[in-house]
């Protein structure tokens, strides 16, 4: 409640009258609704502009499509041939993370995750973590959870973030066919395979 004095020449000997004007310290509901509506419209406009900028970006050239896919094709073909020969000796070389590594190296060669230090350091470190987790906890949910979280911490501390490597500890823990490798799992198959892929992408 706010008191306001307004002059009046015809009322009372004092020559003024007191008029009461009720005002609220908060905004009326209509103003609040308008502000919310403006914020929603503004957010929608920002999202629309972001989508339009993505849609207006130039389409990739033919070479940008052919060379990465051709490199990935040749690399996977060569690694499949090597895997076939190693299987005769009881070794498994071809693993699923190589598909993600191929995508990173050939499709985004300038990305931080595609740099040689990131690739090799992440694969060696995460493979080691998988071996240690299995030795400490045995196969099961605890080994998987500890190994995955430790791999993320390792890549963050060493600044070698390479997402495909995060699957290596799980591959070792849940893959009995790799258990006989023990400490050699640090180098085979992931690190050796990444070396071959780095050579292929450098050609």
UniProtKB/TrEMBL annotation:
Q: Which species does this protein come from?
A: Selaginella moellendorffii
**Where in this chain does the record put each HPP transmembrane region domain?**
58-200
Q: GO molecular-function annotation terms? A: nitrate transmembrane transporter activity
A GO BP term here is:
nitrate transmembrane transport
Q: Which domain of life is it from?
A: Eukaryota
Q: Which Pfam families match?
A: TM_HPP
TM segment ranges: 90-108, 120-142, 183-202
Q: What is this protein called?
A: HPP transmembrane region domain-containing protein
Question: Transmembrane as a keyword?
Answer: yes
In terms of InterPro entries, this protein maps to: HPP (IPR007065), TM_HPP (IPR058581)
Alphabetically sorted, this entry's keywords are: Membrane, Transmembrane, Transmembrane helix
